[in-house]
Amino acid sequence: MTTENTNAKSYEERAASQPTDLHKNFAEWLFVQTGIKPDLKTVQLVCSMRMDFQRSEENQKHLADRKKAAAAKAAKAKADKIAKAKATLAKLQAEIAAEEATSTPAAKPAPAKKATPAKPEDKPTATRSRARKAPAKAAEAPATPKAPRTRRTAAKKTAAPVATEAK
After folding, report:
1. Which long-range contacts (C-beta less than 8 Å, at least 24 apart) are formed by 43-51?
2. H-helix or E-strand containing 66?
3. pLDDT 10s digits, 125-143
4. What is the DSSP letter of 54?
5. Which of 30, 58, 134, 139 has a CA positioned 20 to 30 A from the CA of residue 125?
6. CA–CA dist 70, 66 (Å, integer)
């Protein structure tokens, strides 16, 4: 352990001091909460030296080692996951290849035809008969929306005045 201390007292002097009321109350609270009777001197040492331990070189080294081990474990898990995915992919590709090999017989590929460029005179020309048969491709202007239709009720159709009785 390091001898660097933020308090004026050394570790030995702090350990030799008597427990305070806080230490006594904390020990009692631990007993009530857990059912375990802790040693009062241990509670005092833990309370007074916890922060020193957390700052210590030993604890910092331990924390760094834990981080390094966790990172290595995560990298190994990632590599294993990738390897498993690649193996599954290779298995599926092999199944597909086997299925294709058994489902289609090996046939000779047909000889490739030579592509001839289209000549303008080879294209059909629009004639009147074709123009009549072909649907119009011209873009039509969008129709203007009509006003919504309203329904007439029977009372509006017969617009006869209602007669009132006179006394």
Report:
1. 43/19, 44/17, 44/19, 44/20, 45/14, 45/15, 47/22, 47/23, 48/14, 49/11, 49/14, 51/6
2. helix 57-103
3. 666 665 566 565 556 666 6
4. H
5. 139
6. 6
